[in-house]
């Protein structure tokens, strides 16, 4: 095994370990504290983390074995089953991110008008649509015998069929990535811009109030006034930075693999195995990045994790906030900022 394969194996092992641990922690937090799963965003969150966990348990190890041994699993039908799960879970994860982003846009932009829509039952309907759409593509690929081992990606997934079926496979691949990548990306961008507009409007109102307060407080030292103004400017950029990171992560993780899959359809193009495996690793890295970016770094999840650790060590938990509902408010705020 060369240096390139060794680095790719190390990257896969790291992504696999982080995805297993982080998504298991998210699900454990949601199971431990009912407030984290009591809203529509909580249901979508559990679905996203569960899909990532299944991807880490049932898909990534076989790609790791493919890189190590350069061949598919020996058991008959195993590679087709893994390819079915890979197709289903990849599409479902992207659509779940889009649904979660749309839910947070409704919560931020129309808190009163859409309050009745932000219920776990409606979230279940959204997830049913996402699961049905992902399942339809996976079943179609399985029925057309387009699932198998792809040496360019060292994984069981979609593979190029014989020459007579190239046109049908190209149409299927284009439709699959249009629904599983382009559509979620468009939803993510549009809803993020909506959240950003609301955040900027909120910051402007806060700036107006703060400036009036600074005018009234004439006994403040000039350095204190300057620090207040600097913090106001930092708030303006914080929402933009978080939304930009969210969109950039989606593109970095999914775009290389999607572009490579589309370029692979050109008859004269041969995908380099090192690049193909690296692009596949990047799609896996979304399963490891989402829990940290969206949830585990937020205060409500940190509080729940701290309470679980204290309970495990049989210590009294740290003092909670004055109102139990503050956890809900911080959870919603954190999810809105992260997406």
UniProtKB/TrEMBL annotation:
Instruction: List GO BP terms, alphabetically.
Output: adenylate cyclase-activating G protein-coupled receptor signaling pathway
Q: Which domain of life does this protein belong to?
A: Eukaryota
Any single Gene Ontology cellular-component annotation:
plasma membrane
Main location (coarse class): membrane
Region Disordered, as annotated, extends over 317-339
Q: Where is the G-protein coupled receptors family 1 profile domain?
A: 22-294
Gene3D superfamilies per the UniProt record, alphabetical: Rhodopsin 7-helix transmembrane proteins
Q: Is Transmembrane a UniProt keyword of this protein? A: yes
Q: How does it sit in the membrane?
A: Multi-pass membrane protein
User: What are the GO MF terms of this UniProt record?
Assistant: G protein-coupled receptor activity
SUPFAM superfamilies in the record, alphabetically?
Family A G protein-coupled receptor-like
Q: Which InterPro entries match?
A: GPC_Orphan_Receptors, GPCR_Rhodpsn, GPCR_Rhodpsn_7TM
Q: Which UniProt keywords apply?
A: Cell membrane, G-protein coupled receptor, Membrane, Receptor, Transducer, Transmembrane, Transmembrane helix
Tell me the Pfam families matching this sequence. 7tm_1
Q: Which residues cross the membrane?
A: 6-32, 44-68, 88-112, 124-149, 169-196, 243-263
**Intracellular or extracellular location(s):** Cell membrane
The entry's protein name is G protein-coupled receptor 78
Per the UniProt record, the source organism is Saimiri boliviensis boliviensis
* Gene from which this protein is expressed: GPR78
